[in-house]
Design goal:
alpha/beta; globular; eight-stranded parallel sheet; TIM Barrel; 15% strand; disordered N terminus; 12 strands
Length: 324
């Protein structure tokens, strides 16, 4: 009897871990390398056509931009999954992953670790890659911006969202504005990221010379006092509170600002990925609620499923700009 209970408990644990894995990886399409094949193998077919594009300054970038959190080992699911991603994304696999994204029609990547990614980008460019790179950055030291530009040749540098929220809360928004000015002086596009939609509104109202915004669909940096005022219903809660009302609140602000916006965490950091239908619904919601000049940033973890192709397909389906 006890052995049967232990066996059932073991099965239950395996099922739970399996569900968590599916939630993080975000689709149910099988990827070839899950069966022992490598992303380094060149596909026999020609590269896919470019996805629908928007303009960031003088640059034409696809409405789907591949994000950096899985590459950097930020799963938002806890330290075990973080380590899982870190061990998978070796420099060689990162290069092959981004090459696969480009072959699927994606031409932009948002990254956050210049030291790690500089050599990867050089390898990709030597291979003929035309990928555009956008750096998420928070180091406000005098020479940091220039170093990022020299080492990685990005088209843009964006002030980190968590740092933005904190500085605005502390009444230090001037530090973010100074950062924007330094980026523009360095000759690349300047952006600001935020989780709190009030930060985006304030910047727009004050008329900052910002080229674009990165806008999180979930306000993850609420203080404990702010959380107490929120309703108990959340999309999901594993370490962070993802409130179901947040995407509507942020996209309402996005539609009020003139600059292009890049929505991120549209899948609630994997929490809306247990079924293909939910992934598709998230892409549909994003493109229907963003402006035609906006795009999305989506992190991908292709260890088990072909998230690259699935996300590209949903972008082609819902991100096509309609003629007016």
């Amino acid at each position: 009897m006890d052995s049967d209970k232990n066996k059932a408990a073991s099965i239950g644990r395996r099922e739970f871990l399996s569900q968590i894995s599916v939630a993080v990886t975000g689709s149910t399409l099988a990827l070839a390398n899950a069966r022992g094949q490598s992303l380094s193998a060149e596909k026999t077919s020609s590269p896919a056509p470019l996805l629908p594009t928007i303009r960031l300054g003088d640059h034409s970038v696809t409405r789907l931009i591949v994000g950096s959190n899985p590459i950097s080992g930020y799963s938002y699911m806890g330290p075990i999954m973080d380590r899982h991603m870190q061990e998978y994304f070796t420099p060689e696999r990162i290069a092959e992953f981004l090459w696969a994204c480009e072959r699927e029609g994606i031409n932009a990547h948002q990254f956050s670790s210049p030291e790690e990614m500089g050599p990867v980008f050089r390898k990709l460019r030597d291979r003929g890659s035309k990928m555009n790179f956008i750096c998420l950055h928070s180091d406000r030291s005098p020479t940091s911006v220039e170093k990022v530009v020299n080492d990685t040749l990005p088209i843009a540098i964006v002030h980190h969202g968590g740092a933005t929220d904190t500085l605005f809360r502390e009444g230090k928004s001037g530090q973010v504005r100074d950062f924007v000015k330094r980026v523009k002086d360095a000759g690349v596009l300047a952006g600001v990221s935020a989780h709190n939609p009030d930060c985006i509104k304030q910047i727009a109202d004050e008329g900052w010379q910002v080229d674009f915004f990165m806008t999180c669909f979930y306000y993850l940096t609420r203080t404990s006092e702010e959380l107490k005022k929120m309703p108990p219903v959340v999309t999901a809660q594993i370490g962070y509170s993802f409130f179901a009302s947040d995407p509507t609140a942020m996209t309402k602000v996005v539609r009020q600002v003139n600059q292009p916006c890049l929505g991120y965490k549209i899948l609630a950091a994997g929490r809306m990925c247990d079924r293909d239908s939910k992934v598709e619904a998230a892409f549909k919601f994003a493109f229907e609620h963003l402006k035609p000049t906006d795009g999305v940033i989506v992190g991908m973890y292709p260890r088990y499923q072909d998230q690259i192709r699935q996300n590209a397909q949903y972008t082609r389906k819902y991100g096509v700009l309609q003629d007016t």
